[in-house]
Design a protein that fits this description.
Elements: H1 2-24, H2 27-30, H3 45-56, H4 70-82, H5 93-102, H6 119-133, H7 138-153, H8 161-165, H9 172-176, H10 185-195, E1 206-208, E2 223-227, E3 230-233
Antiparallel strand pairs: 1-3, 2-3
Length: about 230
């Protein structure tokens, strides 16, 4: 009888432990950034992961030592400013979500899109992303999709995705036929993220590769930022 009661007690303890873990688990924890707010003075493995992500995105923060110091705060502020969110140097849920999306580690955005875009629009935008930006960092692929959408909203361009994409000489991939390549899952995710409002390009309506661009005119545009191999400009 005592052995039976002991086993029942053990079973209850295990069940309670599982429930406690489930109650406190969040998707962000699975990504390594934890669920606490990170700020100057914070230390730990989640800070080290934050630093690794910032370095991967091209921010100069020194070594990933797990200590949230002035250099890390500067990197966070730069990232927040580039993504048009509150620049406070504090890494809360919004900043974490954007950081994870920037390196392609957050869940895909919902399939519903802004502006009532249909599946045909999503497919075409994903084809642009894949044909123009495969091999670029995820944040750069979202930025490419954002440029298309920024043009749709701009009075100087056609007001539909297909109109923008197939405007004569607008995109190299259309001219050389790469637009017909089959996009991968990452390209679709980037297209949906852009349609749901994430614009890492900073409002750009043009982009180009400074190493390969032959147009003198494109080099006269005002550069907003560099992402991967591309300069994004207006």
């Amino acid at each position: 009888m005592q052995q039976k009661n002991w086993k029942q007690c053990l079973g209850v303890c295990v069940l309670v432990g599982i429930l406690l873990v489930t109650a406190t688990y969040t998707p962000l924890q699975a990504q390594g950034l934890g669920n606490r707010v990170l700020m100057r003075g914070s230390t730990g493995s989640d800070v080290r992961e934050l630093q690794n992500i910032l370095k991967r995105l091209g921010y100069t923060i020194g070594s990933a030592d797990g200590v949230f110091g002035p250099a890390t705060e500067k990197g966070v502020r730069s990232f927040q400013g580039s993504n048009r969110i509150s620049v406070d140097g504090i890494v809360g849920a919004k900043t974490k979500d954007l950081l994870l999306r920037a390196v392609g580690r957050a869940p895909a955005a919902p399939k519903t899109s802004r502006g009532g875009a249909n599946q045909s629009d999503i497919n075409l935008l994903a084809r642009v992303v894949y044909s123009e930006g495969r091999g670029e960092p995820y944040i750069g692929q979202v930025a490419i999709a954002s440029v298309v959408l920024n043009r749709v909203r701009h009075a100087s361009f056609p007001n539909t995705i297909s109109g923008v994409v197939y405007q004569p000489w607008a995109f190299t991939a259309v001219h050389d036929g790469q637009i017909n390549l089959t996009p991968n899952a990452t390209a679709f995710r980037a297209a949906r993220d852009a349609m749901n409002g994430w614009d890492p390009s900073g409002g750009a309506t043009y982009y180009y590769n400074p190493r390969t661009a032959t147009s003198g005119w494109i080099r006269t545009r005002t550069i907003i930022k560099y992402i991967g191999k591309h300069a994004f400009c207006r």
